[in-house]
Each structure stands twice: as structure tokens, then as C-alpha cells.
Amino acid sequence: MVKRDVKTSISEGEGDVQVINENGKRSAEDENKDGPKRVRTKSLYRQPTVNELNRLQETENLFNSNLFRLQVDEIIEEVKVKEKTEKRFLQFFTELKTHLLSIPEDDTEYDLSEQTLFKKLKVKLPLSGKLSKTKCMFKFHKFSNVEIVGSYALGCAINSKLRVDLQISVPGETYTKNDSINYRYHKKRAAYLAYIAAHLSKLENIEELQYSYINGTETKPVLDFKPTGKLGNQLSVRINLLCDSDAYKLHRFSPERNNLREAWLFNENSESNTEVGPPTPCYNNSVLADLTATVNQVFLNEILQKSENLKQAVTLLKIWLRQRNLKVSGHVVALLVAYFVQTKRVNNIMSSYQIVRNIWIALKTSDLDTKGISLCKATDTSPSLEDFHKHFPVVFIDRTGFYNICGQMCKGTYLALKRECVLAVDMLDNGKINSFLPLFMVPVKPLMQFDHILRFKNLKQLKESVLAKTPREAQVNHGIEQLPLVTDVVHSLLAKGLGNRVDLIQQLVDNDFSWPVKKSLDKVRSGYEEKLSFGFVLNPENSINVVEKGPPANLPEAEEFRAFWGDKSELRRFQDGSITETCVWEGESMTERRTVTKQIVDYLMKLKFDINPSDLFHISDQLDSVLARKQWASERVLYVDDSSLTALQAFDALRRDLRQLVQLPLDISAVYGVSPIFSYSAPAPALPRATPHNPWQRASTCLVKDMQRDGLASLPEYTPVCKAILELGHSGKWPGDIHAFRCLKAAFHLQIAERLTAQYSLPTQAYATHIDVLKNGLVFRLEIAHAKEITLLKREMQHGVVKYRESEESVRLQCDTVLMPRLRGALHGLHQKHPSFGPTACLFKRWLSAHLLSPPHFPETVAELMTAAVYMHAAPTQPPASPTVGLVRVLKLLAEFDWQRDMIVLDFNEDMSHEEITELEQKFAASPESAPAVRIVTAYDGPMPSVWSRAGPSANVLARARRLAASALKYLDDALMVGHKDNILGMFVPSYAGYNVLIHLHSALVPHSSERVDQPPKLQPLPEKLTEEIIPVVEFHPVTKYLGELRSAYGDFALFFHDLYGGEVIAVLWKPDIKDDREFQLTNANALKPYSAKGETKYKVNIEALIEDFRILGDGLVKHITVN
Amino acid sequence: MKAAKRTQDVKALELQLTEDSVAPHTVYFKEHIVREHTKDKPQGRTLLVVNVPPYADEKGLINAFREAGSVQSVQLCLKPSTADVKHIMRFIPEEKITTFRAAYIVFKKVAELDKALKLTELQPLNSNAHQMQVGIKKWINEYNSSIILPKTLKENVETFMKQFDENAQKADKKEKELEQEDDEGWVTVTKRGKVQSFARSEKVENKIMQKEEKNKKRKELKNFYTFQIRESKMKHIVSLRQKFEEDKKKIAQIKQSRRFKPF
């Protein structure tokens, strides 16, 4: 047994006695002398009690961890229905019950095809027009009891959106023997419900009396209402009707029986009414649900009523399911738990954690779609499981052996459930995260969870065309409930068409519908639309295959393949000699290949159901256009990952060259790339350049020509370099003085440059700090790194003792030359594993920059690490497979992560132990002031945890970024999930409101100005002949230079914001104290001007002069300045 | 004394970039007086100017004060400081920072400083002969001058190394001299001397301390006496308790941020 009230046993001990026992020297007299010390002793060194030992032991054995257990306790406490509410409800229920039972008997018979009943009741029947052709007579028989059932009765209810289920059993004599067919049962049931509704509408202490269809079950409405007053805020009440089990023999509704005549459904001659048609298991199941409810409820009560731990487990599972937005009702969950109790997989002695875990494991390995389970022992009378499998996608048979509890569950839901179980167990087993939070606390929204979402703009058209192409038997089976049928058909088509490209296809149906009892259904419904969409979780490897290989041409399966794919299928011969039927989709670039899923869906919907691609809405590649270069293009549009790949290939060749250099005093032992381009995360990567026209040249590098055209300087195209780090072989001869060391480094640079030119005739330019080398039209910047340089920077003397202390410079050098190469390598690896990582990082950087938070406000590396966090800590979902979804996830992380309290650990190679992580956590918690605003620790940081975010973002920038992210997410949700907007580039347009000064720049001088999202694409062709002899002007970025000067000169007075990717405006925000009076000091007189007030001379910041300075420093670049 | 007559108040005047500048900065200046004057800032002739705008250069300041007389030298630095600037031999020169600076203007004659202190108006920084370099022009120049011929770089390296070697030799020699007994018979112990010593660095010190600690521990007996066993058991429980307490704290924290509301 798990003891609940252990808190008391821990915090209150038998302190005084123990103190003496444990430390004999201390006597009771001095206990008041050293009070505080005693308290500590009391709490930690007191003799353990039996209770406490038990609890500690229990936690070790029965729960994942202490923390997990405490969290479970908390959440259970949180969702529990408050006692006060329970009391109030009980009172309300007694009143309600008395009122309901006072319903008068009525001997009149009503013809339900006429309006007589409505006239009597003044309440509409909850029936759709489709049932009007069913004729029957109805007579009200009084029911005997009203019961509370479901989760509230069992005590595993969740107090948010709490709904108390009441059930009323309709007396068996209401229905005649023949009522079971052609919806007569349902019609009478609806009439009965209307009768109750009419009676209830006279009751005063209820409001919002409504009929509802749950899960689109049009034939079986329920009655919803709320108690008035405070109780109404806490809960609502639902009345469900069921049928006395003696009304019908259950075998009439076996899955193989027909109860809905084909002729009725298709309005054919009614003479053929007697003819028995194909089996209607779905229709049967809907009646069976009412007939068997009592039996199952009794069974559930028997198992769960007295078992606290089982109930807790059910509650936990319900929370988990609700967070995952899975349409599995609490009833099904409770029955599943009951099933596993019955099969002895779980029992009440287990802790709730163990039960939940066992159920996840059991569900993970279950196959309800092929090997159904049953709560009933097989007898001769009940139908076999095979019969059920023939008609239902998921089979879980109830206590009676006739009713399929999962009859309404779509296969997609079941597969999603199974998959979530797998993920849940994985999360539990991952000791490094606090798995509780992602499991129970984080809601999973479709936009987060799926890589690709397919929505239908015109569901009615889809319904019609699907129904037109489905066989009659299926239609008869589903009767007037068409949506489940359509869903099933489309789901299986997509599943077949996409095959192993997707890990999961889940339908997202939104068809719960409620309306007031006094209004007629058809009228209310005209304004309402059901929504159907499908979410895909893509398989990152398979989903980008361009070729769909079918069976070899000579096999019979080939015929089927051809039939399925239509014209798209063609015979192809492959390199291995096989000739097969094949479909080939378009996809030359990586970005195009990501759209293969879309192509397939579009093609299949057109082929099978004649639905135009324009009627489909895909949420998948909306933001790909941001990843395409606008200024340059090769034969086709150039995407960032293509350019990065080109650079990587050139770099690999250069690396080989470097390794083979001879006649160097020290060999080059390693070459590492450090620029973002090497992990595919540069939004505007370097492109190969053509030979400059008429260059001014010094050594092998171009100079910037100081020329003017139309009064503007004409500058060369901005060319970024790709930076790399060289490591040399070991030598003990490096000098022990930092300046001499650097001099020697320069000598090495010179020599390497010389050798590169001599051996491979590559143009090179050596500098004291680096070497520029041209390879394949790209410029690489190499720098020698050596650990000794860092040590020398750290070194300082104190009292004659040499000590090593981190200095700003040493940290920077360590980041650049030691940490960055490793991190870049790890990120490159991450991109190889998840090919959408790079593009996602690009999108995120673009987004940040578009909102003027470009580095140094929000450093690039921090942006990359945040993106990496989305891929490495994807729980509760899986890593995204498309950049658009990736961006959504990063924004979500940014907006919702608790940056103040938590940190993110990026452990690329599983190097960090649990203890190390805990230690870091404590370290940050101990000094919250000195910790950076964003705490992302990588395994490489070593003694400098979260080194990358030390410089930024600051708390203010983080707060702004979070607000922007939250509104961007809302914008995306509105545009994609509610509307059908394909153009969502609006999220990349900044607002300049709120800034004090705007500095407008000449757009011709701003690098990347044509890459901005609001610019039309230029698509200049890339040069065919690349520059081979001369290094172009590189890294000459006038705006960055200007910003650098502004920030270093006026950083004390203002903040400067700019979009790195082509922003033509620099936004300036004064520091809040800019207008305050300052004290004049000789050492601190910057930008002050004197003014006299009340005869005194005071000083304040000379704002006008500062603005004038902005113009002076940006001479030739600044167009004009506006002051707000 | 002449200097005594001079006022110690700081004077403030506006400093324009060109004649038509509308909103100029105000510079503040006074005579540079400290207890010990250095050679480059001689007493009586040096003017200290603060709040010099970021774009001003030496020649510009000479332009500004040209009415006072001829200037011998101008030194720009980040903050006014009395300390003598130490010249460390650097291979890579320090980066120039664009910001407000202080300037020491040394006039050729004492009288010129007096005149400067009485100025009522400064001339603009720019003159026909010399203009401040700002904006695009400056960046282009910076870029172009950063590109140097390999030959020049090689020469730089060689001269620097030569200089460095010379200095190193001098330092060596000095150390050797220290080794000699001084008048009172003291000998300074150095790294290269005959007397063996260990390097005085933090690392070495830590190592020695660790060794000591280890030796101490080795002498102790563990789990030998009953009380020790009892204590170690207690320790285990204490660590469990500690963990429990920590977790409870964490929960309290999470609770505080109301994160247990799942919906």
C-alpha cells in the first residue's frame, strides 16, 4: 500500500529525543542555546522512523524518482474535484432527481412524423431531417431512476471542464420488437429525450439546456445543461439515455446482422423492405451501446470503486490523453484499465506510476487492430473476434461479448494512441529529463505535433465524391453518419499512398455540436461546418524519396500497383538491373523533395476523388520561400541547403589539400569549420563569385574602389567568408609570451599561405590573424588555433604566484577556437540526422533578425542552440521534419519555456551524467543574478556552463522575443488552422513603432537588401566562370561597420536595432534615463551639455548632437534620419 | 607661479565638425595639472580636453585650437589618466575603438595655453587642408589598408621577433644577475638557477595540497569502529533525505509558478 499522508511523517520528527540519542554529548539543557543549529540537526540527522524508511524505500522501488512521485501527488491533488463542489452538487442532484422523477405519465400516442409531440412539449426533437422518412408511434413510459455514472461516480474525474454524466434508463416497453431497424429506435430515443428536456425546461436552477452530438453521432443526441449559480462555473451535467437490457436480445445486433435496410437508405421502393441486406455492425453497435451500458458500468464499479491506485492511474491516463488531444474517452480508458486488471497485468497494490507505466507498455505492444481483446469469456452464443475484425478497425469487446467498445475509434486514433504510448515509455526511461512535465503538463497541439497537415476547404464536396465512390455495403453500415465513413476511406487511401513515408496519419475531426432545445436542428446547423483534417508525422528518411518503387513488372502485384497509381506509374529500369513499376515525383533540391508528400496527396485526391489541389490546404511548406535566395539563382531557385552543400564540398576538398601540404615546420593535424554554413544554418550562405571586373589589387586580394556613381559610393557585392580553424601538430617550442606567440602564428599563416599557392596554385592572402584562401569561387578564412594562446591570455601573476583566470578575451578565444569547432561538428551531425535542422535554424534566425533582434542582441549561436533543443528535446512529440513546423516549435519553445527557472541541456553525445546536470542546476539556482537570462548548456562547455548565452540575449531582449514569438504563434494559428492562408510572410515584417529614432540607409549600399521578404525576386544567374586568380573583396559590410561604431560610441545612451538580412532601417531606442540630469565629472563627461535652470548650471545628454553624430558617422550610407 | 593665476574651472565650448553644423557637442577643457608631470605632458603647456566626439582625430583638434597657437602634440585616450602609459610591445596593434575620448594637447609655448584657456569660440574640426574621415570613406580606407603584401608581413614578423629575442636575452641576463649574491648575501631563487625550486603556479600549489590531503586520508581507518559504520549508514539516509528536501523545494517552486494546472 502506498501511504498518502507521509508529508507529516517527514517534516515532523521526534526531534528532542533523537538529538540526545544521535549525539550523546549534547544534553537537553543546551538545546535552547544553539537553536538554529539544532533545527538543522533535527531535520537531517534525526533517527529515521519506520514510516519514513518505508516511504524512501517505496519511492526507490515503486516510483520513477522522488520528484516524479511528488509531482504525481501534486497533479492528482490539483485535478481533484473540490469537496465544496461535491457538496453543492449533491444538493443540486437531489433536487434534480426529485424533479425528474416527478415527470407525469402520458398515455397519448404520438405519431413522430407529425408535429404533435412538438406542439405538446414546445421543445424540438433532436433529429436531423434525414430521419423523417422513418415512421413510428411513440408513447412515453416513465423511467424509474436517475443515476450518476462515469468518471464522477468513480471518483476519477478531472475538475477542469468537469462534466457529470447522468443516465436514465428508458423502460423496455417504449420500444417494440421491430423498432430496432431503420433508426426507429433512435427516433424514439430522441423523442424520449425531448420529453425529458421539456420537463427539465421547467426547472429553475438549470441553464443552457442544450442537445449535443458527441463525436458526430447524429443519431444519438444527449442533453447538456448547467446548474445555475456558482456550481455552473465548476461543472456541467449531461443526461444520456440508455435502454433497459431486457428490451432486445443482444444477438439481434451481432456484427453480422442487418438492421438497416438498403432500400430505406437509398429511398428505393419500400416493398423490398423485407429483404435483408448486408451486415450493419456500426448501426448495431450504436444500439448495443445503450443496451450494454449497465452491465459494463457494474463491472467497472466492481473493479475500480475501492481501488485508489487504479483510480489515480485512470486519472493520470485521462490527463495524459487530454493533453495529447486524442479522442479516446475516459470510459474507454477505464475499461482498458479494467481489462488489464482482469488479465492480471496490473493490480491495486502497484503504485499509480507502475500501473500507468504497465498500461503504456501493454498498449504499446497491443494489436487491437488485428488481435482484438475482450472482457467477456468466449461462449457459443457471442460472435467471434474474427467477425468483429471483419467490420471494425479496432476491436475491444465489452463484458457481454456483443458490443465493441472501440467501435467508433478510427484506426488513425488507435495508431496514434499506440505511438504515444511508445513515446511515453521512452520519456519515462530517459533519466535525464523530468519526464513528468512533457507527459502530463504540456498540451500537444496539431501544429506542434504534425509535420504536415492536410485540410479540406470544401468538406461537402469531399463527402459527396467519396460517397459516390464507396460501395453500398459500407454506406449502409454507417447509415446517415457519413463523416466517419469518409474519414475511414480517406485515411486508408492516404495510408496506402504514403506507405512508409509517414510514421502516422491521424484524422483531426471537429464535429461536436450543441444547440438549444427550442431551436430546430436543421436551422442551427446551416451555419455550422464540420471540420476534417489529417495530420501526418513524416518519416524523415523515407518522406524525401523521390522514387516510389513498385513491384517488378512481371509480378501480378504490378497490375494492382498500376491500378492504384494510374498514369503516374511507369516502367523503369534501375541500376541494379531490376525493372519495376515506379512512380517518380519531382524533387531536385532538398526543399523540393520535402514537398513530395504534398505532391502525392494532391495527385491521389485528384485521381481517386476528383478533388482539385486548389480545394486542399496543406500546412507544410509555407515558409520555404524564405529559404530561397531572391537575388541569385542557378538554373532553378537556389535554396540555402544547396548553397551550404556546395560550400561544404569545396571545404572538404580544401581540407584534403591542407592536410597534404609539405615543407611546413609543423604539419596541419586537423581542420574544423566554424561558420554556420558548415551546419547548414546560414540564412544567406556564401555563393561562388565571378572574377571581379577591372579590379584594384594588392597581393592577391581586391581592394575596394573608392568611386562614386550618382553621388553614392559604388561598393562591391557583399561576400561572406567561411571560417575554419587549423590545428597544428604538437610542439613545445611556442613562446611563452602572448605577443611573441601571435607573431609566430602570423609567420605560420604566411608559410601555409605560401605553400597553398605553391602546391595547389590557390590564391591566398596571409594576415597576422588569419589566411584567406580562394577555392571553387568561395573564400575560406583559416586561423591557427592553439591551446597555449588561451592559457597565455588567462595567465596572471598574483603575489609572485602564476594563476589562471578567465578573462573576456580568453573566453572569446576559447569559444571561437575550441568550443565552436566541436559544437559546429555536433550541429552538422544533428543536421545529417534531421535534415530539417539547418533550414529551421535559418528560418529562426531570419525571424529574429526580421524583428530587429539580430546579433548581438540575440546571438546566432544561441538561436542555433535553441533550434537544436527542439530537435534534441522533442518530448512530448518527435523532432519536426519540415522547416515550417520546425520554426513553429522553436517559437513555442521560446515563448513557453520557463527561462527564469529552468535550463536546457544539450548533450550531443550522451557525455553528461545525471549528477553533473543536477550540479549545474544547483549552481544556477544558487546565484540567479549572475546566471544568464537564457541558460543553454552543452556538453562541451566544461567549466563555463552556458557560455554561449553569456553575452546575450539580455533579460529585456528575451522578454521582447518571447512576446513576439507568442504573437507570431497566434498569427500562425489563425492563418493556418482557422483560415487557409498560404502567404504567412507577414510574420517576417517588423514594426517600427515605439523606437525613438529611425536611421534610413541607402538601399543600394545595404548588403542582402534584395533578400528581404517584401522584395520581389531578382534571380540573377550565378556566374558560370568562377574567380580563380583573385580573392574578391570579402566581409566588407558597411552597415555592420556602421552599427559597430554606433554601438561602441553611443552604447551608453541608446540601443540600436537592425535586420541583418537586408534591413534598410536602423531603429534607435534611447535608454530610459536619457533625459535625466547628469553629474559632471572630468572622467565622465561624454555627450553632456550644460544648461542653466534656476540660476544653476546643470548637465544633460546632448540628444540633438547625438543624432547629428549618427549622420556624421554614417556619412555616405545614411539617407535620412527621422525622430519620433 | 604662473599656473596659480590660471583658473582651475573647466571651460565649456561648442565644437563643430564644419562651419554649418547645427547641433555640435560641447567639449570641456582645463589645464592639465598633476603632482608629477611626465615628459609627454609637460607642466604648464598641456591642455586636457574631455568629451571629444568619436570622429575627431589629432589633426582635427589642432584645427579646432588653431587660434590659440601652434600645437606640439596631441594625445587621444579613452579616459583622462595620470598614469604614464606603458608601452607593451604588441605584434597585433590594439583595435581602435570609436567612442568619446579625452585629449591632451601640448602647446609649444606656455602663453599659447593661456590663450587657449581664454578662447570664446573653437574653430570647426574640418578645415580645407584636413577633413575628418568618417562613413563609407573611412571604412574603405580601413579595409584597403588592412590588406598587406606578404613581404611586408614577413618583415614585420622578422623585426618583431628580433626585438623580442633581444628583450628576452636582456631579461635572461637580468635573472642571471639576480642569482648572484647581493651585498647582504641574499640570493634570489629563479627558474634557471642552480638552486632547484618548483614553479610557483597555482597548479603546482594545488597538486601539493592534494598530495597532503591524500596522505592524511590514508592514515585514517574506515568502517572500522562501530560508530563509523553507524555514521555511514546515517549518511546514506541523510543523503536520501537531502534529495527529498531538494525535490520538495523544486515542487514548491513549480507550484509557485502554477505549473500544476495542466489545462
Describe the protein's architecture and organization:
The complex is a heterodimer of chains A (1124) and B (263). By secondary structure, chain A is an alpha+beta fold. In chain A, a hairpin with a 2-residue loop joins strand 29 (795-798) and strand 30 (801-804). In chain A, the strands form 13 sheets. In chain A, strands 3-4-7-6-5-12 form a six-stranded mixed β-sheet. The radius of gyration of chain A is 36 Å and the shape is elongated. In chain A, helix 2 packs across helix 3 and helix 29 runs antiparallel to helix 30 (808-833). Chain A folds into seven domains: 7-62, no CATH class; 78-248, Beta Polymerase, domain 2; 304-444, Poly(a)-polymerase, middle domain, CATH 1.10.1410.10; 447-546 and 585-621, 2-Layer Sandwich (Alpha-Beta Plaits), CATH 3.30.70.3020; 647-686 and 721-830, 2-Layer Sandwich (Beta Polymerase, domain 2), CATH 3.30.460; 834-841 and 853-991, no CATH class; 997-1123, Alpha-Beta Plaits, CATH 3.30.70.3030. By secondary structure, chain B is of the alpha+beta class. Chain B folds into two domains: 2-134, no CATH class; 202-256, no CATH class. In chain B, strands 1-2-3-5-4 form a five-stranded antiparallel β-sheet. The termini of chain B are far apart. Mean pLDDT of chain B is 82; it is low at 1-5. Chains A and B meet through helix 5, helix 13, helix 18, helix 28 and strand 30 of A and strand 2, strand 3, helix 4, helix 5 and helix 6 of B.
